[in-house]
Write a structure and sequence with these properties.
The chain has five helices and ten strands. 32% of the residues lie in helices and 42% in strands. The longest helix has 24 residues, at 2-25. It has one domain: Protein Transport Mog1p, Chain A, CATH 3.40.1000.10. The chain has helices spanning 2-25, 82-92, 154-157, 161-170, 174-183; strands at residues 28-32, 38-43, 46-52, 58-64, 71-78, 101-111, 114-124, 130-139, 144-153, 172-173. By secondary structure, the chain is of the alpha+beta class. The radius of gyration is 20 Å and the shape is globular. The strands form two sheets. Strands 3-4-5-9-8-7-6 form a seven-stranded antiparallel β-sheet, with helices on both faces. A three-stranded antiparallel β-sheet has the order 1-2-10. The relative contact order is 0.15.
Length: 184
Amino acid sequence: MIRSYRFYSLLVLFAALLAPAAFAQSATEVFEDPDGKYTLNLPAGWLGIVNTDGLGRKDVNIVYKVRENGALKVRLGEGAEPMDYAAKDEQERVRFAPSYDKLSLEKFLLGGGKSGALLSYDYKNTAGQLFTGRVYYLRGDEKTIYVLQFTGRRNILGTLRSHTDAIARSFKLKQDEAKQAEKK
């Protein structure tokens, strides 16, 4: 009886010690684009770094701990449908990565009846190390596509699919947020 009491006491103590660590890992930080175009929710471990060059242009780098582990770049494209734009972008730009190996091009569900496209591929960096890329194509408006391109070491970024999916799903245009606030 005393042994089982000790066992359960230790079990409760162990659970109490691990609970804060589990909650800390699920914490997110909101990143706002310095130009005020969009916001993203970044899971623990992801950092938004903004640098300004000599001409006053802002360069946004979103990285997972260090750039080689995972990096995100956001850019604009013009197109009607995310899947069509993704196929065009692959043919004109992405496939020229060294040792490019396409894994998939698929529809990506964002929620609320919205969808985008996701291109996944492997490649080697200039040092010959295995890297992976994951590119999300999200509709901004009728003619604008936002491209979220993640790149990083295959053994690290490959395990962060839930992070990259969550970041892509959290992408919100500032103008959309203003419209939602007006409706309320």
